[in-house]
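tl;dr need the bound structure. longer version: we got a ligand (zinc ion) that a collaborator sent over and nobodys looked at where it sits. i said id run it. heres the input, straight from their email, havent touched it
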Amino acid sequence: PSTVYLKDYLPPEFLIDQVMLWFDLDETETRVRSRLELRRNPAAQSRSPDLRLHGEQLELISLSLDGQPVAPAGYLQDDEGLTVRQVPDQFVLESEVRILPQQNTALEGLYKSGGLFCTQCEAEGFRKITWYLDRPDVMSRFTTTICADKQRYPVLLSNGNPSDTVELEDGRHRITWTDPFPKPAYLFALVAGDLRAIEDSHTTPSGREVTLRIYVEPENIDKCDHAMASLKRAMAWDEQQYGREYDLDIYMIVAVNDFNMGAMENKGLNIFNSKFVLASPATATDRDFQGIESVIAHEYFHNWTGNRITCRDWFQLSLKEGLTVFRDQEFSADMGSRGVKRIEDVRLLRAHQFAEDAGPMAHPVRPDSYMEINNFYTVTVYEKGAEVVRMQANLLGPEAFRGGTDLYFERFDGQAVTTDDFVQCMADAGQRDLGQFKRWYSQAGTPELTIQGVYDAAQQTYTLTVEQHCPATPGQPDKEPFLIPLAVGLLDDRGTDLALRLAGDSDPGPTTRMLEISEPRQQFVFEQVPVAPVPSLLRGFSAPVKVRFDYSNEQLMFLMAHDSDGFSRWDAAQTLAQRILLQLVDDPDSLVPEGFVQAFRQALQDSASDPALLAEVLTLPAESYLGDQMAEVDVEGIHRAREQLKTLLASELKTELLAVYRDNEVTGEYRPDADAIGRRSLRNLALGYLMQLEDQAIQALCIAQYRAGNNMTDVITALSLLADRDIPETAELLEGFYQQWRDDPLVLDKWFSLQAMSKRPDTLERVKGLLDHPAFSIANPNKVRSLIGAFCSGNPVRFHAADGAGYRFLSDRVLELDQLNPQVAARMVRLMTRWQRYDPARQRLMQTQLERILHTSGVSRDVYEIVSKSLE
Ligand code: B3K
Ligand code: ZN
């Protein structure tokens, strides 16, 4: 496979002003006719006599130019497209192709999900529908006519506004959709099927009445209310926070069961993985409710950050994704608990993005090359990209940041632009040079800040010395210094924030200061500091960096108890827990500081604090994250240490945990609001600790919680805890759960996952058995993620078993899946690519499997890129 480089970008030679599409949908074949109005791009930097269009897996039926059939000598078709020879400067190209959506298991282009036809065109799926300039900087007006059997496909949808339906003689019907907004082909969408919809409406500030519709399969019609409410909240929030309103008369969402990722922001017609639409208290967990709210919002926010202003090329992907993730994070923070949301986002970033940045697939937020663009929809482009936007907000402050986004919308509406264009708006609005800041887009790797603090009692000064360093990443051995906003506070001996006065300040400043780190080494002198302070560093996680500061255990406990910044309290607890756990890995007999247990006790007894925040503080770092902190991952040692500490805390704090369990019961009707979610999470966390005790009375409590069946959050937590242990009732409960939910695929996903993540030693055998379960299908991405993905990523001690059985299992599945769905196969194979982090025996086992995949004939470009880069 060949590599595409950012430095090779050239503007398109042709533009498409208008495109008309006609779809004849059918079970045996689908015909697509297209009419493209093309002309040469005045801004092109190159000129060839021929027109080159993208197109894959298309069977050509006819081709004509300005109404005249193109002779066979006038065009050339190959695997990747069509070259039309010697074209004029302006012309109409018409073509007809045959495609087979029913055989499309890659779920890219036009495909069938159950009885529905649907599309997924980002990034380069439109070329599997018809010949086109399938690149985001070619924006065109689309008119789409769909024709299909009326009984099987009563609902026919595409982007924009609909015409009236026309009934045809042969039991078919036809409709035309017109989208007035020019858009790149990746935002095209089509859906046909037997769907029901719930409808609502929203009036924008300028008075536009927008019809809102969520389409689902008939049996799911009662599970759409939360998605609709979320959409309405998102629309109101974007109007309020960014001054952005919706621009068509109708906004449609369709839920489908077979989908490669979460959802897709197609103009006016979002297509969603049903996981991010359907919810009822009985079937969805608190996490599911939150996930739906945030993904619905994310796709809605794309209408401005992605659709109205899109990407010039796919290297600019973070232009829309980083910004839109930042927007959805802020929305969720406003809808729920801001502090908890920040902790969750940072935990995800540290667990996955820091790991990516330290591994063989490390790449900048704006990558400079790729083989397969679908491999770059990563935590780096999305979540680190969001942090890079957040840092700009931190550097500019809220007003200038809003000025920057206003400017961005005004300057670039209707255009396909770059991350540089975005930063320039921020620089203009903030009236400052952000040249150095742009390294966050071009340099990969997680910067490390090594910080020292010295108190001078005589001078009453406190000096922070900050050094930055960024480790090498593939292709980038040396890094230039970053511009890093570092939020700091200083606590006095009673835990109170000091007003911060930097050398040269005339007045004492606020209690949190945003220091700007731009040099390899810098000093900051705080004056009039009356006592030796404890520094609180990187408050709110003001930048995606690692901080090294030599805190004592006592200082960490002090911060954990007193820091005014919720994130930093949590972070201190994590740092301390991590330190203790890593000591236990080295030496199981090492002593757990009494103060740590005491700090947990105090937290459990602290009824004044937000239960959701407490639950975060009391959650120990994950096994995989602990592994990332070691020079060589000790798979068994980490598992043992973490279990050991959990059991110790459970036995020392049994009374307090039982009290928390008892006091945080949520009664009354289920509601996924921040308060109820927080109480459930604290209560279920307590149950998790208590279940470490192998105590029959507690197991009975857990079974009772399962049987009470008040809501899916409590039910699934209880069942997962039971599935971890050899309790006689478990088999029966698991079977009962299956029987109860056998017709609900989303609930069964949870059932597969909890079994895949079970701590039991025989889990791999059970997972293999579940591959043959009638409810499992390797063709369905949700099932693959819930069974195979959950095992390989959520169960490190079983996946990394010393005999290599887990690795063989994964590579067998990857090879099988690659034949059907390369995108999902490439996601799965990533789970084995950080082999260099393990001991020599495991390294060899993983390498062997990776080599085996690489040398299998016909392996997809998607899988090839990941595997070959990991072996470099
Ligand atoms: N833009 C889509 C992701 C498309 C992934 C293509 N492989 C969803 C989103 O980020 O909103
Ligand atoms: Zn997105």
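gonna send this back to them w/ a short note. The chain has a mean pLDDT of 98.
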